[in-house]
Amino acid sequence: MPVCIGGMHRSGTSMVANLLRLCGLHLGREGEMLPPASDNPEGFWENVNFRDLNDEILAALGGTFDSPPRPPGGWHELETLDTLREKARALLRRLAPAEPWGWKDPRNSLTLPFWSSLLPRMRVLVCVRHPFDVARSERRRWERLYVLNRPRVSSLPLYLAAWRHYDRVAGALSIRPRLVPSYRRCFTLWRIYNESILASARPADRLVTHYDSYFINPAAELRRVLDFLEMDVPGEQIEESCSAIMPGLRHNRPDARESSGARLPREVADLYSRMCQEARFARGAEN
Questions:
Q1: With the C-alpha atoms ordered 196, 197, 200, 203, is the resulting torsion angle positive or negative?
Q2: Per residue in 166-218, pLDDT tens?
Q3: Alpha-carbon torsion 128, 51, 250, 242, what sign?
């Protein structure tokens, strides 16, 4: 049974995909995996073929992963997507012989109707994380990228001060997208991604799993996911797989959320609370 892993970026999709890989889920050949990067040194476990095709789908609809399109109802049946459908079928045929199999890409949250039309029996795994933690992680990722591309040390303070000032002014005046996305922008994307995937996946075909659960009782949460996917994995293998979880990945706390100064929009807070309930994560609904 194919498995589609989605959720907003920085929500633990890579971690969950790796755990499932260690438990026997085939994600593709090693050479097809997106290589680790400075913002995800443990690896993305993302098949570049699916990622690239998702980008093509979004582009055909007039959007990108960070500027989601607003396609009409039934968009996945558009004739203009026929060529991409054939490419998708070819990808699926290559993976299908390896059972169980699946793929991970946060963009799946936006393109799920396309994939569901090709795989009606597909199981969908939705990774969720507190919106503040996602926003902080996303902003920190962009800040690191600028540091990596910074000029020589002698001009670093002036450089950082200049681009931070430009970032604030450009964002405030809507001259261009901010270099580092604002909290408001991150919250909006978090809502769009999660609303989209929940609207496209029937409750019976999906399971919501919370990022923080893997730092509280990882074996129990992984077992819950595996049971949903009908993957029979010995307890010893589950425990061994959970040893791959890096405690340092959980670097956001409620006090950090409060100190950010950003306010969580009511519609985002309500959606997060509903997703926590579906993920059986009561602690998250309180924060």
A1: negative
A2: 555 554 444 444 567 889 999 999 999 999 999 999 999 999 999 999 999 99
A3: positive
> pTM for this structure?
0.86
State the amino acid at position 246 in one-letter form. M
**194 conformational bin, left if phi > 0, alpha if psi -120 to 50, beta if neither:** alpha
Q: Is the bond preceding residue 247 a cis peptide, omega within 30 degrees?
A: no
Helix (H) or strand (E) holding 103: strand 102-104
Question: What span, in angstroms and rounded, lies between the C-alpha atoms of 81 and 85?
Answer: 6
Please write down the long-range contacts of 156-164, taking CB distance under 8 Å and 24 or more positions apart. none
pLDDT at 141: 77
How many other CB atoms sit within 10 Å of the CB of residue 188?
Answer: 16
Contact status, residue 197 vs residue 124, Cβ threshold 8 Å: yes
Which residues in the chain show pLDDT less than 50?
153, 171-177, 285-286
CB 31 within 8 A of CB 234: no
What pLDDT is attached to residue 61?
97
> CA-CA distance, 237 to 219, in Å (whole number)?
10
Instruction: Tell me what pLDDT residue 166 has.
Output: 55
Report how far residue 144's alpha carbon sits from residue 161's, in angstroms, rounded to the nearest whole number.
15
C-alpha distances in angstroms, 248 versus 32, 187, 244, 245, 252?
A: 27, 24, 12, 9, 10
- What is the residue whose two structure tokens read 């476990």? 45
